[in-house]
Design goal:
- The protein is an alpha/beta fold and 415 residues long.
- The chain has 12 helices and 9 strands.
- It has 2 domains: 79 residues; 288 residues, 3-Layer(aba) Sandwich (Rossmann fold), CATH 3.40.50.200.
- The strands form 2 sheets. Strands 2-3-1-4-5-6-7 form a 7-stranded parallel beta sheet, sandwiched between helices. The chain has a two-stranded antiparallel sheet with strand order 8-9.
- β2, α4 and β3 form a beta-alpha-beta unit.
- It is globular, with a radius of gyration of 28 Å.
- This is S8 family serine peptidase.
- Keywords: Hydrolase, Membrane, Protease, Serine protease, Signal, Transmembrane, Transmembrane helix.
- It comes from Streptomyces heilongjiangensis.
- Belongs to the peptidase S8 family.
């Protein structure tokens, strides 16, 4: 009669031991970031993708159609940047952000009446520039929770590309000079060029001397076809120019997206995958990503800082953005801290041109830290429960073996 009891006890103990071994690994697994760029915005919202450019070799192209889908939820990037709290302290009112990309549709939802465009920049066939403008200064239209970082700012739309989205140094130089003449407080260059150009260097220097904060994409957006594994690390321009804030994209977990072009000299990382914004036509939403998206978010943050600290120079604004960033291999943009932190002399003396050397990944941050803390608590509680099960199984088997008689205390008790 004892063999079945011992077998049952071993079964209970074995199950408890298995649970004890699996629990520490099973709980934190839910906190791990999803690998690669998500197919949606991280909350299951399936939206059409916003291209950054069209195929330059195609015989004919059709402009990006109006999206028929609308985002129903707050996307991860706005939560990560804590925009609801940021807007209590500023919206970028009174600041003009010059956006150099594919142009901006002046009548787009959430941007109507707040965008001025030079020449062909009012025609955005690709739609990418309008998408970025929504991240910088859009009101969200009928979806206010999808507003940009600085909904009180103005947008000056400038073309740094042709009508298909292919960038050129000549167009970027012309756009930089127009932004400088317009006295834009922030200049966002969403394109990245593979070669340094003397005229481009001069145009950037002129913009900085005029007092503009220049923010630029650390890399071009990844090509739509082919991999990036064989592409060597290199510096792109104008992000590599002295004094320019070079910005890279990151995933919800803090790492750079799989397939992101390698580069060094990055100053900040900002959300750049599965991000929701509007387009030039219709009232629907799209998903976008890349260093250009991260640049738009950073430019919006710079506008809010400029409005909140109007006496700060452009270099001081740049230092504020980098000094208050979340510490990681590549510091992560924190607009709320940039606006509200009182900087000391140590932070003020930090050079904006100091750049991280050859970063590969960005450390996980707040959400993962909270998840890890919860996982640790669950592990402790679960381990205690497992030990209780093991002890109960052992006590049960011993009691059955004694025929439910009380345990003998020692030799004196047996006499």
């Amino acid at each position: 009669m004892r063999r079945p009891v011992r077998g049952a006890a071993r079964l209970v103990s074995g199950a408890g031991l298995t649970a004890a071994l699996l629990l520490p690994t099973a709980v934190p697994a839910h906190a791990a970031p999803p690998p690669g760029m998500p197919a949606a915005d991280g909350k299951g919202q399936q939206l059409p993708a916003m291209p950054s450019a069209f195929d330059p070799e195609a015989d004919d192209v059709t402009c990006t159609p109006a999206s028929k889908e609308k985002a129903e939820k707050h996307d991860w990037s706005r939560q990560r940047l804590d925009l609801d709290r940021l807007r209590v302290h500023g919206t970028g009112a009174g600041v003009t952000v010059a956006l150099i990309d594919t142009g901006v549709a002046t009548g787009a939802a959430g941007l109507d009446g707040r965008v001025s465009a030079r020449g062909a920049a009012a025609d955005d066939c690709v739609g990418h520039g309008t998408f970025l403008a929504g991240l910088i200064a859009g009101t969200g239209g009928a979806s206010p929770r999808l507003a940009g970082v600085a909904p009180g700012a103005k947008i000056l739309a400038l073309r740094g590309t042709d009508e298909r989205g292919t960038a050129s140094a000549d167009l970027v130089v012309r756009a930089l000079r127009e932004a400088t003449e317009a006295r834009a407080g922030v200049i966002a260059v969403a394109v990245a060029l593979p070669r340094r150009d003397a005229a481009l260097t001069r145009a950037v220097a002129e913009a900085r001397r005029a007092g503009a904060v220049v923010v630029a994409a650390a890399t071009p957006d990844p090509p739509s076809r082919g991999g990036t594994d064989d592409i060597p690390s290199r510096t792109y321009w104008p992000a590599g120019e002295p004094g320019v804030l070079s910005v890279a994209d990151m995933l919800p977990g803090g790492t750079r997206p799989k397939g992101a072009l390698p580069t060094g000299g990055i100053d900040l990382a900002a959300p750049g995958a599965g991000v929701v914004s509007g387009g030039p036509r219709g009232k629907g939403h799209y998903l976008g990503g890349g260093a250009s998206v991260a640049t738009a978010y950073t430019a919006g943050a710079a506008a809010v800082v400029r409005a909140a600290h109007p006496d700060d120079s452009a270099d001081a604004v740049t230092r504020r953005l980098t000094a208050t960033a979340y510490p990681a291999d590549i510091p992560q943009l924190d607009p709320y801290a940039a606006v509200t932190t009182v900087l000391g002399d140590a932070a003020a003396s930090t050079g904006a041109d100091e750049r991280a050397a050859d970063p590969v990944t960005v450390r996980d941050t707040a959400s993962a830290d909270r998840a890890t803390g919860r996982a640790g608590l669950l592990v402790l509680v679960g381990s205690a429960a497992v030990l209780a099960v093991l002890w109960a199984g052992f006590a049960f088997s011993r009691a059955r073996a004694r025929g439910w008689r009380p345990a003998q205390a020692g030799p004196a008790a047996r006499e």
